[in-house]
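Regression report. Comparing outputs from two consecutive submissions.

Submission 1:
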Amino acid sequence: MVVKDQLIKIGLHPILVELGEVTIAQEINAKQKSTLNNILMTFGFLLIDDKKSRIIEKIKNTIINHVHYSDEQLKTNFSEYISNQLHHNYNYLSNLFSDVEGTTIEQYFISQKIERVKELLVYDELSVSEIALQMNYNSVSHLSKQFKKVTGFTPTYYKKLKERKRTPIEEL
């Protein structure tokens, strides 16, 4: 809503405003782009207008949406899912992501899954085995090993911690 309001205030007409993506009705000139960039920065957003950066953001948003906001179980493997969502060859996406981000798409996906697991553990509404099932792990053991590798704690121990420190999505 903030982004949409700011676009309208500077005379741009947004057609679509979604997480990480805006489509505007007209081409914008350099002055409008600079003004928009300055406004977005005051709200903690970045204007990304080169093709590679847009693809990286789409990869991240696809992963975040799938892990944090969707209950849909993948019917294909993860690489096919990303490839289908972004309409690019997975090898191209993977190499681009690794070059720019310094980590693999798979590691980013795992870090997002672990953050979601942390969130579910903190809510304390599901057992570890229910979380493993919901997060599409093959077993509680698989979840526990991956969780410990990333956080240094077992899910059970993490759940017992009084001070739960989560990493914001933006900092992953």
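Submission 2:
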Amino acid sequence: MSGFSQKIARWLRRHAVAGLYVVVAASAGSAIIVPARADNMPVFAIEFKDGTVAPLRLQVPAGRPFKIELHNNGNTPAEFESTELRLEKVLGAHSSSFIVIRRLDRGAYKFFDDFHPDAPQAVLTAK
């Protein structure tokens, strides 16, 4: 790797956007590397409201990045939690946030509101 390529690689490691890159081959045989655009990601939404989760079933793409917007429209805190995905995100009352999942294998992954343990569990299905 040339000195210039090493500098670009170091810069990319420091300034990576969710670890995604688009590589375009240049005519001289080198490569130009630019961060991938986040707006190319499919976006899904989950709503929490005082012990309810909607939707209870969410289908997402397998093998590619996607974003899940989390909205707590309730008067109590909520927590998106999935032991299978090893993810959790706490939301205050009337707040929103998001998570980005880089890649999931095909399958079903349970998630729930950890602050409302009596609420039914939901399922995220990657296809």
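Expected: both submissions complete independently.
Actual: both completed, but the second showed a warning that disappeared on reload.
Relevant detail on submission 2: Residues 3-14 form the longest helix (12 residues).
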